[in-house]
Amino acid sequence: MSPLPVLIETDVETHMTDGTVLRSTVYRPADDGGGRFPVLLTRTPYGRDLSVNSAYFNPATVAAAGYGVILQDCRGRFGSDGVFTPSVHEASDGADTVAWAAGLPWSDGSVAMWGRSYFAETQWRAASLSPAALCALALGISAGGNANNGALYRGGAHELGSRLGWGHASISVNELMREFHDDPERREKELGSWLDLDRGFADGSLFDTLPLRRLSPKLGTFMNSHVLPSAGEDPGSRFTKLWDAASAQAVTLPTLHIGGWFDIFAPNTFEQYEKQLDLSKAQGSPAPRLIVGPWTHTNFTGAYPDINFGIAAASGMMNGLGDLSRIHTDWFDAVLKNHPERLRRVPPVLLYFMGENQWRGFEELPVPSGERSWYFGRDGSLSHEPEADGIAEFDYDPLDPVPTVGGATMIHGTFPAGPARQEAVEEREDVLVFTSEAFTESLTVFGEVRASFFASTSAVDTDFVIRLCRVAPDGTSLSLADGIVRASWRDSYAGTGRYSPGHQPSLVEPGSVHEYTVSLWQTAYTFAPGERLRVQVTSSCHPRWDRNLNTGKRAYDSDHSVVARQSIRFGELHPSRLTAGVL
Fold first, then answer.
1. What percent of the residues of the chain are helix, what percent strand, and what percent coil, each to the nearest 5?
2. Cα–Cα distance between 187 and 184 in angstroms, integer?
3. 98-126 pLDDT tens trace
C-alpha cells in the first residue's frame, strides 16, 4: 500500500472522568472518504512533541501506513492540566484516554499502545483496568516490576545516579516552569538555580555531597517530593510496591517487548515477556514477541566510545529487517489488521549476540543448555574447579570510591552507559581482578550471570560489586555486566541475587565470613578463541550506587565514614565463583 497523506492536529483535548483536560498531538491519515483506522496511543511525561527517534517509532510514517497515532502529555505535564504524581493517575487516565480514542470519528474502535520507558508504564497501568477497546501493547525498555532489582535499588544499594539524573534531566525543568508560571521573576531565579545544579550533574561533582540530604536546598519541589527521599529509604518501601504494581499481572493481549542488554530495566523486559509467555501457554492467548539489542536505555545505535557492534546492530537497520518503526508497523498490521504475513521475516524472539555480532532468531526465549562456573583462585586466576584455599584483600575508602565506568545506567552528565574499557578501573588497588586462561574455542555466555562468594570485612556494613569483563588478546578489558550487594541486605538477596521480601537488614560482625550472592542480570556474548573472561571484585561504583560509608549509616543521613579492610576467600572451603548460562 502506498503511504497515505498525513494530517497533524495539535492540542487535541481529552476530558478525564474527574474533569481534568489532557492534550495530545494526533497524526492520522488525511482521508476525505470517511475511512476508519486503528489507533496507536502513547502517553508521556516528557513532552508529546519532543523529537521522537524515528528509528524507534516515527508517528508520521506509521500514520501514513494507515493508523491514527496519538501522543498525549500525562496529567500535569507540558500541555495537560492537573498535577503530575508519578505512577498514581496513569491507570485511570490511560483507561479514560483509550475509551476516548476508540470513539473518535475516524477510529475503527480498536486501540493499541506503544512507547518506551515511562511510556511503557502507562501501557501496563491502563491495561490493568481492562478497557474494552485496548487490543495490544508494544513495550519498550519497560520499567515496571523490578523496583528492588535495579530500578530503585540493587542488592540493597540505592540507584543514586539514575534516580537523581532522571528527576533532574527529564522532569524538573517543566515542573518549575509550571510551579512559577504566574511569577516570572521567581521562575527566572529558579531556572538559574537549576542551571547551577546542572553543572554539578555535568561534571559529576554534585554526587560527592555528603550527607545526600544536604542536596535538598538545591533541588526543586518535584525532586524533593518524589526523588531525593528514596535515597533515605530501603528496598520494599511503599514506593517500590507502587512501582512494581504496574506490571504485576500478565494481560490477555498481544505484546511486543523491546529491550537492551545494557538497559537499566533489562530484567523487567525479560520478566514481563516470560509472564506473558506463561499466560499464553496456559490460556491460549497470543504469544508475546521479544527483541533485545546491544542497547542502553537511550542509545539504540549499538555504537559506543570503546566498541562498535556494527550498523546491523542499530535500531535503524537491524540486519536489514527494517528499523524499529517499521517493525512496530508490521507487528500492528499483524495483530490489528489480521496481516500475519507482514511478520514473516521477523522471528518471534530476536536477540543480538555480542562478540559474534549478529542477530539470532528463536521461536521463544531459549533456555541455556547448561551452566559453567569459574572459581576465584590465587594470583588472580579463574579456574573451572576450586583450587587451594586463599584470601585476597583490599581496602575500601568511601571518600575515594571507584568511579562508574559504563554499565546499565541512566545517569545524566559525565557517566555514559554501555560497555566500556576497564583498564583504568583495574589499575586501582581497591579492585581485585580474576582472569581465566584464554579460550581455545568459542563459548557463548547466555542468560543470567551471578556470583557467589565468601567475604569478610572489618566494618559493620559495606558493599561488594562484581563485574564481568571480556579481555581481548591485546589485553583490553571491556565490561559486559555487573551487580552489587550491600552486606546488611545479604539475606534479602541470598541464593539468587534477587530481592526476596520478609528479611530485615542486619549489620555484620567485623571479621565474620558470609556467603554473598550478586545477580549480574542477563547477557549474550560469544567469547572467541584467544579471549579471556575476567571478574572484578570491588566495593563501590560511584555515583551509580550510593556509597556505603562502612558505618551502618546511610549516605543520605551521614557524612562520617571509615575505611574497611575487605577479604575475599576462595578455594575448596570457600568456593567463590562466577556462574553463567551457556548456549
1. 25, 30, 45
2. 5
3. 999 999 999 999 999 999 999 999 999 99
